[in-house]
Every structure is written in C-alpha cells, then in structure tokens.
Amino acid sequence: MAHLTTSVEYALHGLLWLVDSDVALSTREIAEVQGISPSFLAKIFPRLEKAGIVSASEGVRGGYRLARAADQISFLDVVNAVEGDKPLFDCQEVRGRCALFGGNPPPWAISGTCAIHAVMIQAEKAMRDVLATQTLAAVSQRFSRKIPATYMADLREWFGDRHDRRTSRIGRPRREGPS
Amino acid sequence: MAHLTTSVEYALHGLLWLVDSDVALSTREIAEVQGISPSFLAKIFPRLEKAGIVSASEGVRGGYRLARAADQISFLDVVNAVEGDKPLFDCQEVRGRCALFGGNPPPWAISGTCAIHAVMIQAEKAMRDVLATQTLAAVSQRFSRKIPATYMADLREWFGDRHDRRTSRIGRPRREGPS
Lengths: 179, 179
Prior knowledge:
2 copies of one chain form a homodimer. By secondary structure, the first copy, chain A, is mainly alpha-helical.
C-alpha cells in the first residue's frame, strides 16, 4: 500500500470541488460528480471537518464548505487530517538489541535518536515540507487553466439540477445532512 | 504500515555490521549479534545482493561482504533494493472519472500529470533526495563515535569465537553458505 493512500487522493479531489463552489455540497454530490465511492467519501469528510478544513451544515441546502480560504489549506493539512500521525519509518530501536547487551543496553547505545532513524526523520521532513508549501488554491488554479468554458457551463447545469432536486423535496420529512 | 518497512530497518542495521568487518559475515551471525530474526534477514540479503550492494561467498568462511565502498552505498540504494519501486502515492487518475465525461474523458482532462499527483511526485523526490545523500559510511561513523573501546574488544571476541566455531567444523560435510 502506498504511504499516501486512496483516502488522501479522494479527500484532495473532493476538496477541489469546494474551492470555487458558492453552495455547500454533500459528499454524495461530490462523489457522484467525481465518479468515486460515496460511502468511502462519507467516511473521509468527517476527518476533514474534525481538522477544521471543512465545515458542515444540515438541512435541504446542507453539505460541506471549506472552513477557511483555499490558499490557507495545504496538502500537508489534508494528509495529516486523513492519515493522522503515520510515520514514514517506524523505528523499532534495533540498536539496543545487540547480543552483547544481554537485554540491558547501556546508555551510550540508546541515547539520542538512532542514526538510521535520524536520516528517516530528515527524509520525512523534506517530504512534508513540500506538502506544506502546496495549497488547494494553487492546485485548483492549475486544474482550472485547462478547463474549457463549455465544461464549466455543463458543470453549473449539473449542480443546478442537483440543487433543484434537493430543494423540491417538499413534504418529505427526511433531513438532508452533509453526507 | 510505515512506508519504509522493518525490512529496510533490518537491512540497514545488518549492513552496518559489514562496514568495518574484515571477514564475510553470514546473515545468521549478523542476526544474532543484532538480536533480530535470522530467517527474516536471510530473505532480505539476497535482494541486497541482487542490487549489487553486497556480494556472497560460500564455504566455511562464506558470508556477505559489501560489494562496494560504504561511502558509495546510499540509503536510497538500500531502500530501492529492499522495497522496489513502491511509490509514495499511487495515482488512480481520478480526474478522468468526472460524471460529465461519461466514461470517456476528453484529452484536456487527462493530458500531462494530474496536478495532485505532481505534488506527490515532488514530495517523494524531496524524500528520496535526502536518502540519496546519506551513505552507510556516514551513518556508521556516527554510530562509531559513541562506541567505547571495551565494547569493540568484546565484539572482536564474540566474532572471533563464532569464526573459530565455523572453521573448526572439521569432518562435517555440511556446506556453509552466506545465510
């Protein structure tokens, strides 16, 4: 399994739909327009909400919005929200297991950070530094540059249609949530 | 599971025993002195041999040696040898699945590298660049600085004892391999 999983991929693609959206979108709408699993996405967005990346509202117009400006949401924020504190390398302190220590390693052998682990921490930091410099806004702009006007019109129609369907459910007691 | 697994950790700790060794060491000896699983290590070293990091010899003095100078073996060499081409992020080309494409995404939507994937490639490169700059020799020196002379003497005795046991197996037809 790759270190940055499908959950991160779905979260990022999902969030990009919110960058320029004037209305709140449900995870069902996002999943449908993006062609990904609605149930999978519905499990990811609560993590993004908990991390303060999106905010949720209920009701017929309910759904998710970005909780702050897209240029204030980095890839690292999203990775941390979705994956938690998953280290690149999980040091097992092998250095202290030398047969000569007989299960009781001396302080000189286990003080400070293991030299191998230190390299891995440095490598992980370099990776995270890149993720910290990239924002949803910047990547959204890169996507937008390629999009033709006709597609934008089709999209507005698609979301308008969904929105109409939602708000015309008069008399139906079922509460519409963010998912 | 961490991206850089226990196999990488064992490979690096195992290889460090070869940096200053005058004799070939079997994976059994390395595993025993390091307090790690011999059978696990025996599966890892053939990958290091295949990648040209170690060379194997057979016979009573058989075992593994570094195949080139320790300052010419980077952490990235070891990670690649052990893990293969495991990407940090496995792009599934989600961008082409938009519902409006009806399963037939237009060229503008899927040309070039996905902007999300591009960020992940950049992050992975930053991680690999750090791993490429760190060598077995440099990390071995960092370990060596902390080691007291008494421990080095104990180690020489431990390996000498193992060596004597190996070479005194006169009349035993079993061939000693690198593992």
